Amino acid sequence: MVTVEFSSSMMASFKLGTKVSVPFRKCTVRELLRDLEVDLREVGIVLINQETVTLDSEIKDNDCIFVLPMVCGG
């Protein structure tokens, strides 16, 4: 099982809620987020088990993934 949690500011474009658990399968973060119908253009930072990773990082069973939106400011 893999847990995916989304920043509350991403909820306008994501329909499953702030936290979802999905069965583990060997894939990358990018593949998992696409399967969950997340717009990858909105993804800024991804953490797996509290460590910053890229969208091409492999997911392992029991990982906790946290997704933060793209941030901009002045």
Structure description:
The chain is 9% helix and 32% strand. With 74 residues, the chain is mainly beta. The protein has one domain (2-69): Ubiquitin-like (UB roll) (Roll). The chain has a 5-stranded mixed sheet, with no helix packed on it. The longest helix has 7 residues, at 29-35. The termini are far apart.
Features:
74 residues; mainly beta; Ubiquitin-like (UB roll); five-stranded mixed beta sheet; 1 helix; 32% strand; globular
Number of domains: 1
The coarse silhouette is: globular
- Mean pLDDT, as a whole number? 88
What class would the helix/strand composition place it in?
mainly beta
CATH architecture: Roll
SSE topology sketch:
Layout: E1 2-6, E2 19-22, H1 29-35, E3 43-48, E4 51-53, E5 64-69
Parallel strand pairs: 1-5
Antiparallel strand pairs: 1-2, 3-4, 3-5
How would you briefly describe this protein structure?
By secondary structure, the protein is mainly beta. The chain has one helix and five strands. It has one domain (2-69): Ubiquitin-like (UB roll) (Roll).
